Amino acid sequence: MSTPKILYILSCRHVMPGAIGAQQLVCYNCDMPKLVVDVHTWEWRMVCSNCNYSPWCGLSQMTANHHADVHARKRQHKTGVRYLENPYGVKVQQRMQEGTDNAGTASSNGNK
Ligand SMILES: [Zn+2]
Ligand SMILES: [Zn+2]
Fold it and tell me: Is 66 among the domain residues?
């Protein structure tokens, strides 16, 4: 089992996939490291009605459609594609919003 990846919104507003807990990622569009500022929680997902195979496919509906086609043909399963909120992404976003960083700067004029 590999670590699930989620989608991050970087300081340049581009969206990049990264491991949970990432603070900085190299943006493929800008070709340089950018700070993570938010999480993009919505992703395309292939879902199968016959088994548990349901990979997250990021921002690409085409990738999800492709997975659905291949899986349906190989296994004779009934597949579909949906745009869903990734629960891993939601959790990371909540943690970031409660985040120590912003709270720290907001109350920097004296503790207690
Ligand atoms: Zn960028
Ligand atoms: Zn299946």
Answer: yes
The closest ligand to the CA of 48 turns out to be 2
**pLDDT tens digits for range 52-96:** 999 999 999 999 999 999 999 999 999 999 999 999 999 999 999
How many whole angstroms separate alpha carbon 85 and alpha carbon 105? 30
Query: What total of structural domains would you count in the chain?
Result: 1
Q: Is residue 30 part of a domain?
A: yes
Note residues around ion ligand 1 (Cβ under 5 angstroms).
12, 14, 27, 29-30
Ligand at minimal distance from the CA of 67 is 2
Question: Cα of 75 to ligand 2 centre, how many Å?
Answer: 6
pTM here is 0.78
